[in-house]
Amino acid sequence: MTKMIVVTGGVMSGIGKGHVAASIARILKWHGLKVAMIKIDPYLNTDAGTMSPFEHGENFVCEEVWEFEPVPGWKFRIAETDQDLGTYERFTGDFVHPSFNITSGQVYLSVILKERHGEYLGKTVQMIPHVTDEIKRRITDVAKRMKCDVLIIEVGGTVGDIEGMIFLEALRQLRLEIGPENFMLVHVTYLPYLPTTGELKTKPTQHSVQRLLQAGLVPDVIICRAERDLDEKTRKKIALYSNVSPDAVISNPNVDFVYEIPLLFMKQKLNELILKRLQFKNPKIDQKSIKMWTDLINKYKNAKDVIKIALVGKYVAHKDAYISIREALLHAGVHLSVKVKTELVDAENLNEEELLSFDGILLTPGFGKRATEGMIRAAEIALEKKIPFLGICFGCQLGTVAFARKIMGWKRANTTEVDPNTPYPVIDLLPEQKKIKEKGGTMRLGALDIVVVEGTKLWQAYKRKIIRERFRHRYHIIEKYVKDMEKKGYIVNSYTRDRKIAGFEISWHPFFVGVQFHPEFKSRLWQPSPIYLAFLEAALKFRKSKIS
Ligand code: GLN
């Protein structure tokens, strides 16, 4: 039987509920338990793919594409999920399936299509029981498929939001169905710090717990996010108002490095509390893995050398828009014992002078015309000044455009996504994309095999002929132009199995690599992405050459 841990949020969103849920999963895995994770997103989009990175941060692309078929004959491809699923993968090392991200859009779409299909024939279709049943079905389906000991379910948004209420109601019912002894609730709340009195204020937390109780849910653990550590007086006060014991009130102050959170929770014995509450007898503990994790954190903390990487892009207004890329850089940095300082550089107002102060330039993924001239210019500067360069997806495409303009002299070269009338369309739609009109879930998505060309920098990084990485795009490098570009040092470094170009590099440049895929999605703290690692090595070398 699968036990369930529900993670809810109080006071406000964006306080790191995803990291709490992922840290709990990490801890339970250290205890030898099989864990799966669900993220509930109460918005009406079917998946995160159609949302702007400005509003919602990054789209996390899963390894697999899910064929969501609410009723026979209605199929939707889903691979783009909420960024929290990326946190889950990075903390647990397990691939998440797109069906682990349940949105209101999917739930309502299913219920309405089922009604048309005749599944509720004769009935009045209602929020309770039909919508709640659909939510419960989706949750228990994951538990059954994954055969896990524990299923962690993070509810997006904040308790009390109208759109989230129906999910809380479904969870209340689920608690009764599986028995309260198999169900626990972890409430993550925020405690504002008031400098005038030097206190962490508990009132908003009290109100959010009341909101939970109104929904028929009782918290077992309160995780207190705050700028600072929780003092004993505040801990006791929260315990009293929330009806939990003081040791179930867990302090979660800001940390330098998010991977410290599982250890922070272990120190406060959250693991023991959960195991006892869910009645796991004689739990094991994998001290070796905990030590490995602790060593990596120490390695991060003790790193003295700092390298500066520019993330040049168009979504710089939202800190989370490039979260997987930033994490991949951090992971690679830990391996090399250097601190990576990533700075978001706005390509719309590119400061060329400032760009020269960086040790490496990463050209980011993206869509649409805005800011592309600045992005292309940044790639031209990297070419000219021999600054290590890594282009990811759109960044790879625009890196190719920069080469075409600057080295080939093809003045108005471009991608047809930006300029449909360019005389040199070095980047154009994938052939299968030309007939596609619908926007949701219709890109080339998910992981594909990639054949790496021997002897290239990409090959040196991966040291493997066949790799598997994730894609999310419609446009690609056009083979026709490559022959001429090759004469000036442009090298195709990889292909997908259907012979589409998957990346390039420049022979005469110390490190100028573009990849059409997104290696950042598979980077882990304990296993950094090979090409990010190679990029940082080049950046480190470049920095040293500047100093000497
Ligand atoms: N807009 C480009 C395309 O669709 C790149 C996409 C991306 O960077 N993920 O091909």
Give me the CATH fold name of the largest domain. Rossmann fold
Quaternary: single chain
Distance between the termini: 62 Å
How would you characterize the largest beta sheet? 9 strands, mixed
List the helices and strands and how they pair.
Elements (H helix, E strand, L loop, with lengths): L2 E7 L7 H14 L4 E7 L11 H4 L2 E10 L7 E7 L1 H9 L8 E3 H14 L9 H20 L3 E6 L9 H14 L4 E8 L2 E2 L4 E2 L2 H12 L6 E6 L5 H11 L6 E5 L7 H7 L2 H8 L9 H16 L2 E9 L9 H13 L2 E9 L5 H4 L4 E4 L8 H14 L3 E4 L1 H13 L7 E2 L9 E5 L14 E9 L4 H6 L3 E8 L1 E3 L1 H8 L3 E7 L4 E6 L5 E4 L14 H18 L1
Parallel strand pairs: 1-6, 1-7, 2-5, 2-6, 7-10, 10-11, 12-13, 12-14, 14-15, 15-23, 16-17
Antiparallel strand pairs: 3-4, 8-9, 17-20, 18-19, 18-21, 21-22, 22-23
Helix pairs in contact: 1-3, 1-9, 4-5, 5-6, 12-18, 14-15
This protein binds glutamine.
Features of the shown structure:
548 residues, alpha/beta, nine-stranded mixed beta sheet, 2 domains, seven-stranded parallel beta sheet, Rossmann fold
Description:
The chain has 548 residues and is of the alpha/beta class. The protein folds into two domains: 3-294, Rossmann fold, CATH 3.40.50.300; 304-547, Class I glutamine amidotransferase (GATase) domain (Rossmann fold), CATH 3.40.50. Helix content is 37%, strand content 24%. A nine-stranded mixed β-sheet has the order 13-12-14-15-23-22-21-18-19, sandwiched between helices. A seven-stranded parallel β-sheet has the order 5-2-6-1-7-10-11, sandwiched between helices. A three-stranded mixed β-sheet has the order 16-17-20. Strand 10, helix 8 and strand 11 form a beta-alpha-beta unit. Helix 12 packs across helix 18. Bound molecules: glutamine. Glutamine (GLN) binds at residues 365-367, 393-394, 417, 472-475.
